[in-house]
Amino acid sequence: MTGSINAKAQAPLGIFEGHTDVGEVLNQGSATYDHLNNTYTLTGSGENMWMTRDAFQFLWKKASGDVSLSADISFPAAGKNPHRKAVLLIRQDLEPDGIYADAALHGSGLTALQYRNGTGKTTHDIEWNIEAPHRLRIDKHGDTITMFMASAGEPLHPAGASVRLSLKGQFYVGLGVCSHDKDVVEKAIFSHVEIKSLAPMSADARLALYSTLRTISISPESPIQTNVFTAKGMFAAPNWTRDGKSLLFDQNGKIMRIPVGGGEPHALITGVANNCGSSHGLSPDGKWLAATCFVSDDPGAHVNIMPSTGGDARLVTKNPASWWHSWSPDGKTLAFVRPTSIGLNIETISVDGGAETAVTSGAGVHDDPDYSADGQYIYFNSNPNGGTMQIWRMHPDGSNAEQVTSDERNNWTPHPSPDGKWIVFLSYDHSVTGHSPNKEIKLRLLSLSDHKIRDLVDLIGGAGTINVPSWSPDSSRLAFVSFELLPEEGN
């Protein structure tokens, strides 16, 4: 059975107008409303809501403008498939390959924000390593979809996931159930359901910044994102530990460590280097951490080295304004950048300190150096002729510089993968100048085997997203930070 825009409304359905099976569904679904308990019970079949086509039962109403949908969700029975889904859904139409975003609770307890940002495109999702939340909410503000969640006894709070989704004119908002098995019918109960119209955000609205640490698989078939940590305020620049179990990032001048699976981060001891920014990374053997830090009696930023588990910092660069970026594969040399009167240039120095060697010179920005895994190249971004920022590479002594990308976008922060197969970099629209934060960007992958580039994910980010090497040791995933600007509570 295939849904259509003319799906028949069936009353009484509470605040909704109708329900239908979307996509190819073998077993017809149902939707009922219990006005005494203010609950909606949906049964639904369908193979999946994923990839390029969906199949599920949908209870809906038409909407336009900005809207918020929230509900408590539960499965009354154990069910057959742990990936069955109950969702809060905002959808352009009732076609199986339509544009949509949903806040999805799986039967296993997995929670995700799923979205398809173009008709017939592949579904993406952002997942959480948490127990099933008590309540979910999904908001549409302009072209931004934001998810909120709450465990029992706590208020709804930002979940750390916003995506861009362009919906035209009238759209559908409602509840959905998918059994994840075409031969099975599953049931979900939605209670305390609320749909609210949201006022357009005013130009002078007070906004709060939220940062989210996330990992993403580079698989083109399943580019799954997993949220690790979300907090109000700014944090940045994740770096993966060599055992693959933890991530480092900087927050309020401290280097923080957190398990990849999530939890509470804790600060590393850095001795007198008590103000460390988003320029830090682990040595190839994982024993040492290099970081650009300030100390209380010196106003300049210097590269320091300290034990990776925390400890007293040792000064490496004597000259100030030294921003660390990369270790050489043999662990003997550090690459960093320093501003000059006419631009920004790349230098190298022994891990033991001493002489600094400039490997780029002249006007323009030469920034974000990172060694290839074989040590043959340093990749960096540059705009020597004042055009768009592009990815370049050179030999470690600065010789044989060659441009790697050439397009209309501004490309920054290249990081070679440990297996030598990929370069990840972030990419701004050509209209964005500088390494700006809180912009619409893409993370892109360059294959070193055929030099083809593919988009990995769209997000709000920029400065702080992947400032430092952020590959997992097995080259299968990346860590990055995304940002959200949300209305301040009580605004």
List keywords for this structure.
ten-stranded mixed beta sheet, eight-stranded mixed beta sheet, about 0% helix, mainly beta, Neuraminidase, single chain, 39 strands, 2 domains, Jelly Rolls, about 500 residues, elongated
Structural class: mainly beta
Helix % is under 10%
Shape: elongated
CATH-derived architecture of the largest domain: 6 Propeller
How would you summarize the topology of this molecule?
Elements: E1 18-22, E2 30-34, E3 39-44, E4 49-50, E5 53-54, E6 56-63, E7 66-74, E8 85-91, E9 100-106, E10 111-116, E11 124-128, E12 135-141, E13 144-150, E14 157-164, E15 171-178, E16 186-198, E17 207-217, E18 225-232, E19 235-240, E20 246-251, E21 254-259, E22 266-267, E23 275-282, E24 288-295, E25 298-307, E26 314-315, E27 323-327, E28 333-340, E29 343-350, E30 356-358, E31 364-371, E32 378-382, E33 390-394, E34 402-403, E35 410-416, E36 422-428, E37 439-447, E38 453-461, E39 477-487
Characterise the protein shown here.
The protein is mainly beta and 491 residues long. The protein has two domains: 18-198, Jelly Rolls; 207-487, TolB, C-terminal domain (Neuraminidase). The chain is 0% helix and 53% strand. It is built from no helices and 39 strands. The protein has a ten-stranded mixed beta sheet with strand order 1-6-15-8-9-10-11-18-17-39, with no helix packed on it. Strands 27, 28, 29, 30, 31, 32, 33 and 34 form an eight-stranded mixed beta sheet that branches. Strands 2-3-16-7-12-13-14 form a seven-stranded antiparallel beta sheet, with no helix packed on it. A hairpin with a 7-residue loop joins strand 33 and strand 34. Residues 1-10 have low confidence and may be disordered.
